[in-house]
Fold these 2 entries.
Entry 1:
Amino acid sequence: MEKILVIDDEKPTLTMFRLMLSAYGYEVLTAENGQQGLEIFSRERPSIVLTDIKMPGMNGIEVLKEVKAIDPSAEVIVITGHGDMDLAIQALNLDATDFINKPIQRHLLEQAIQRAQERRRMAGEQAVEMVLQPTGSAAVITIQGNITAASEDRLQSLYREALALDKPRIVLHFQENAAINGAGIALVTQLLLESQKQGRQVVVAELSENLRKVFDIVGLSKIVPVVDSLEKALA
Amino acid sequence: MSLHLIRQTVQRFRDISLKNKIFFSIIAVILIISAVIALLARWILVDNLIDELELRGIAIARTIAERSSGYILDMNQPELLSLIFEEAKLKERQHLVSYIFVSDREGQVLSHTLTRKFPETLRLANQVPPDQAKSVRLTRIGDQMAYDIATPINQGIYRIGTVHVGLNKNHIDQLVAKLRTTFLGFLSAVVVIIFIITHRLAKYITLPVFKLTQIAEEVSKGNFDVKLDFEQVSKGGQPTECPAFANPEVACRHLDGNLAPEAHGGGQGAIDPVCMDCRFYRSQKGDEVAQLADAFYNMIWSIRLYRRRLRESEKKYRSLFDSGPDPIFVINHQSFDIIDANPRAVEVYGFSREELIGKPFTELAPEHTHEYFQSLQSQGEAHGLVTYPKALHYKKGQKPFYVNLHASNTTYKGQPAIVLASTDITEMVEKDAQLIQANKMKSLGEMSAGIAHELNQPLNAIKMGSDFLAMMVEQQRAIPPSDLHQVVSEMSTQVDRAAEIINTLRSFGRKAELVTERVDINKPIQAVYTLVARQFELDNIHLELDLDRAIHPVMAHDNRLQQVFFNLVANARDAIIEKNQRLPDRPVGTIRIRTYQKGNRVVAVVQDDGIGIRDAVRDKIFEPFFSTKESSIDMGLGLAITYGIVKDYGGDIQLASQEGIGTTFTLSFAAA
């Protein structure tokens, strides 16, 4: 049974996580503070770590750093308070896999864990799967998986190919399991600013809720139109 | 009997006017002196005159005796006759000398000057005894009386005859009468002159006295504007020309001469040039009567000045009382009944003046009035002002409002009384309340992120619990009963937890009532703990409570005390964060709140181990708009408001701090 570690100073929250994640079929490990969490992580080496950011003593950011120091391949999902996007971005920059807002939505939790699982599966291979697909009026780049610094070459070449197709617009189509870290944000930002300079119309479609929040926070949604579905992007 | 008469006379004399006393006394003395002089004069003058005339008669007789001895021996009668005629008719002697005759040894008349027959009775009427040199005897000659002076004529040792000189008694009596008349006339003239002088003198003395008496009577009737027209008046003018009369604030050098300069008016520097030669106060050179008149005049002028000052002062205080901006009461010293109230009191308290007078003051201010007045009475006669801040008074219809009281002991209509001014500060109190409320809202704003986080925790647990249940139902999986129970009981607990946070917030944000209530001081501390403890934990600050459950309640407002403790712990947190920012690896700070009872005081101690307060700013820490933090984030009102609230409840707040070690605030309140 796959192990999952939850670190939160809130006992009721831990209880609920245990019930919920057990129902998903995980072996749930819980810790009430960062120190305890790190001890359990070192001992049990769970594949996925869920940690609250705001905690007395060692906080979630520190836990994230420590975990990544112990095992860079560990998937760490940070749990943030409502509206704490600054901390979320900070966590993403520190290579957190994802973030979830409290109160936790069940489907978001499921997606986050699912993405973490997929990323683990794809670990060592190409971290991101991107495909260029021309349609009638646009060049659509479909993105799934985790956009990181490692994705740069692939994304850049696909972008150049899309430019070469000479369609009126380029659509960045994010799949549900797409995620992004700090370096990935910088990459996408650079690409979008470049296209704007070149006078190319780029549309972002079907961002997941979390990605949409990240795009809002870093200001990308002001540079390019963000739409809910591919159909709208092509229309 | 005669003693009684004397007494009556003395009494009558006492009752007569001063003028008559002087007059009669002097006249009586003069009359007595005159009578004595008259008697003495009679004794001395009349007797001397008679003696002198006798001596003249004797001298004539002796001259004749000397010159006639030869003629007698020679019996030369013609020569003798011519001699006696010569002597008798010499100049004015003829009026004095009635007759002269010479008799021989046997008494036979040798010659005489009578122009008629010598009366036989005269011949032997006066005989000189042999051993005597003269003899004087009153004789009768015809219808006239005469002093017969007889002198013997001696030749050797033999008496050869006798010379008789008759002095006219009528003439002598005429001379004496003339002397007496002249003398008495002179005395009478003197008496009359003295009479007139005395009369004048008595009038001169008594007239000013009479006038002064009249003026004094007028003054005693209250007429101070009586004319002071003495004869001596040489100065004076319209009263308004006197600077001190025109303006009661001006000191009069004469009237206030003995006062310290600051006691009245502007002192030495402010002497009006007009006063250098005062036109009202007089000191003339003159007799005692003039000086008395001056002194009296000055006295009246002083009284006028004083009266004017008194009136002005009365007017001033009356107008203060009548049109003062604040209600003023005069209150009975013993019963605390209202004796007098000004129009403003009527306006503010809503009772009519008639309703107010006689009403016990405690009806307007049921709380603490007795203690307040007693503290005033314990002052005794001292006329100090005793202040009572923020007393709760009631208007007509039991409408409460806040006043500041200032009272002092006074006398009213001769009785000890209390004069009390009450200033309506309701508006100020409301402004205070608004400020406190604003501070509270600011606190709430600061707390909002933390509160959101705090509320998010139970919401998260509830959300996850319900999602879990929904998922299990959707997937038609069986929920183990223990899990189900755990989830639902946890959800219920978390709802309570959220509700508590919301309740605490609500009570914190609510505006305080006017009236204080009995508050267990542990409760607001606990409420603040609920709001902030977990947030502080996130900043690595422990908030520890050490509360004595057995302490007495205090008179206060629960949510204002929350604000007090919130402000204190918020400051403590800032102090700890400021200290820890300078230190590596996020050390843990501690805030400790302790309560206990000490005698009849309830004490709360808020202690932190933060940055501490520098000595230089320790005194300013409770001042409004003072802040050690950056001005943009802090108005510097937190501790000032805290201080104000604590003082409002009659509490005390003490500060002990050591830079770099920590700060301790010790609050104490009277147990209710």
Entry 2:
Amino acid sequence: MKHRTEEELIVYRDGETKERTAVAAHLQDCAECREELARIEAIFGALDAMPVPDPGENYEERVWQRIGPRLGERKPRWWESVFVPRRLVALGGVVVLVILAFVAGRWTRQPVPAGDQVDAAKVRERVLVVAVGEHLGRTEMVLMELENAPEPKGQKTINISETQRRAEDLVEENRLYRQTALKEGDQAMASTLDELERVLLDIANSPDEVTPAAFETIRKRIEEQGLLFKVRVVKRGLNERKVNPDAKPAENQTDGTERKKI
Amino acid sequence: MADGVEVSDALAVERTLAGDRDAYRVLVERHSRTVYKMAYRIMGNAHDAEEVVQESFLRGYQKLKQFAGNANFGTWVYRIAANYAIDRLRQRNADESRRRVPSKPVEDSLEVDPLSQIPDGSPSPERLAGSAQLADRMQAALAELSPAERTAIVMRHWDGSGIEEIAVVLKSNPNATKNTVFRAVQKLRRALTPFLEGKEVRAIGTEG
């Protein structure tokens, strides 16, 4: 007689099997499988015998005393977080961009001379160039801090809450600029901003206290993707465009060979 | 809240959402002990379990609008706690494995110390059952399970959660979850058999 496997008996004991009747019938006839099932049952018996220490008579009350005063600390809604002073700066930049885009759009829709259309586009691009340049400067600082942070020695965890808070702000800005860059057809900038966004999201979504291993992973990612380098290249390109607005955005700035020429 | 009147969970949720913060107290006091037991079994100590309970009820309060009253509040906050506990356990294990120097190969980690298998005064399984020693062995065996296996066995065995509910917490599918439960039982058995039976587990699918 072929005995039932340990898995079949455990699954039978758990009750999640379609073969329930067949296994039950087998158990009727097979003493050895019954013994095996009894041994498996002993494990569940041992689990049942595991005590959970009583947290105390007034436990429920203690929990409430601990969390009651903290209930007000709810996470701000997205629209509330926008009004945090440091975010107003970024918001201001975006508002200016939108207004200019709107005005420029109106100009270009009217039958105006071709030269004026070009001017409107230039204004729009220039605002983007300045705003993104500043954003990249702030991002560069965060990346540099992470890359140059001292090796954690003997620390259980590393507190990155400050960097994390700044990364959170930058993610929001970054998303807006990336979308604008895409609309403007600046693929190179959009692609770099996309890479940046992923790393910034990683940092923003990490716990306040990260293990040295998790910290190292973030750092390696910045290093391996050459993010700092890419940020600097795009920034430099933007600076050139600030000085010479007619300079074309480099199409392949993220391409390694092109990068080295700059 | 009127004293001496039993307020249903649904009503307490409704009042909390309407701005009555004390109404949430009813929910905390009604469900914190159940959540504590589950958290203790997953985390293995009172300190971490208490942290899980507090954080879960805080998260529950913050997300209360999402609850929308279409489920049982106890089940809902239990799931929040299980999610949080598995994350905390993963984080704790990662921290501990980094501190362990030199790290032990994973395949060795479940092996039982040969010295401990030598019968020490040969207590019978009956004498061992329910004893503190067996509880210690079980605690050690549970600690060797992966966070997913430990969460699965706690939810399944002690709390009778459905496979699909566990799958949600494990972010897995029901079949893989069934397998996780099975693996957890199998590992516990491998670790405890020498103490319960004094012999090895039967070879799988042997001909009789």
